[in-house]
Amino acid sequence: MALSQLQIRHFRNIETASLTPAGGLNLIYGANGSGKTSVLEAIWYLSLGRSFRTHLAPRVIQHEQPQFTLFGRLEQGDRLGIQRPREGDNDVRINGERPRRLAELAARMPLQLISPESFSLLLDGPKARREFIDWGAFHTDPQFLGVWSRYRRLLKQRNQLLRQPGAARQISVWDTQTAHYGEWLTRLRSNWVNSLNGALKGIMEPFLPDVPIRVSFSQGWDVKTPLEQLLSHNLERDIQLGYTVSGPHKADLRLRVNKLPAQDALSRGQLKLLVCALKIAQGRVLSQQQQRGCLYLVDDLASELDHGRRTLLLEQLQHTGSQVFVTAIEPEQLAMVPWGRKFHVEHGRITEQTD
Ligand SMILES: Nc1ncnc2c1ncn2[C@@H]1O[C@H](COP(=O)(O)OP(=O)(O)OP(=O)(O)O)[C@@H](O)[C@H]1O
């Protein structure tokens, strides 16, 4: 899966740009504030219908402009487009048609973002790690989205009923369904983490040799207890608290080094490498299971990494065989691999550079 064409109009400081990226490594370089991250943000927006920097979509529309437009063509021919006016919603098109769900965009263009903020995967609460697991389950199992949405709806309804006096009997009736979808969701997640663990071993070794990292799936409640039994057992407490305390909505990915949480045992550079290894492993399992890879967006690759680790990361990205977009301030910082294409960004203008 690769973008063979990208057009950006009135997005951040980019007035208009048209890129024909390489199927492999693409370098986007330029001074601070030139618009490099905005290119990655545009690709991300085109896949997910939102930014990774703000939840306020009008912020990404170029100042003084009424809307932005993004267009991408995938190598197998699909055409993706999004237009976003200051007032109103995204107008999304796939091959000229409005999709029923935004998720249809994401399904066509799986992305992994590695940025200086990616540490949050390890440092923040479990939500980011659940999303990380769910990314893989979503892209490899067509049932995932339906099962996940159903569980979320049932959980929301349960939490509403927990706050209604006298609804205990009604909750018990619904709990059979909640448990059914919750257990199903957990199986899909657990399958994904098992596959991920297999791929991670080989990837982690060159990144963090001699660091014994253990990755395990925590499903959100005691594995020995069936979910329906747990919900029934916790009902009184859940009513008192007004929400469902345990279940798949509390799932997490645990990363430990010698029994310590990874974030307490590793340096910042090592944490960045661990995040990179996890994201590269996600893409590898996807391509093994689906014969289609994901696209990697790597913002400010050089930060926190020494020359040897930068080389290693670039080589590992190259080995994925995926399309990769990397930003850097100085192209010389990343001259250790042959780049498919290089783009120079200056005050929002993007030009392809030939050596
Ligand atoms: N809505 C907008 N309209 C116009 N310009 C904007 C808008 N939002 C942000 N900008 C400007 O766009 C520029 C590009 O920002 P971007 O983060 O893409 O740069 P960058 O090249 O990645 O910088 P750095 O190397 O410092 O990370 C910034 O100067 C910013 O002030």
Written account of the structure:
- By secondary structure, this protein is an alpha/beta fold.
- It folds into two domains: 1-110 and 292-355, Rossmann fold; 125-291, RecF/RecN/SMC, N-terminal domain (Glutathione S-transferase Yfyf (Class Pi), Chain A, domain 2).
- Helices cover 43% and strands 22% of the residues.
- It has ten helices and 14 strands.
- It has helices spanning 36-48, 103-108, 120-123, 126-140, 144-162, 168-207, 227-241, 262-265, 268-290, 307-319, and strands at 3-11, 14-19, 25-29, 67-74, 79-85, 91-94, 111-114, 213-218, 252-257, 260-261, 295-298, 324-328, 341-346, 349-353.
- Strands 7-11-12-3-13-14 form a six-stranded mixed β-sheet, sandwiched between helices. Strands 2-1-4-5-6 form a five-stranded antiparallel β-sheet, with helices on one face. Strands 8-9-10 form a three-stranded antiparallel β-sheet.
- Helix 5 crosses helix 6.
- The longest helix has 40 residues, at 168-207.
- The chain is globular.
- The model has no long low-confidence stretch (mean pLDDT 95).
- Residues 12-13, 30, 32-38, 59-63, 329 line the site of adenosine-5'-triphosphate.
- Adenosine-5'-triphosphate binds at residues 12-13, 30, 32-38, 59-63, 329.
- InterPro entries: DNA-binding_RecF, DNA-binding_RecF_CS, P-loop_NTPase, RecF/RecN/SMC_N, RecF_2.
- The RecF protein is involved in DNA metabolism; it is required for DNA replication and normal SOS inducibility. RecF binds preferentially to single-stranded, linear DNA. It also seems to bind ATP.
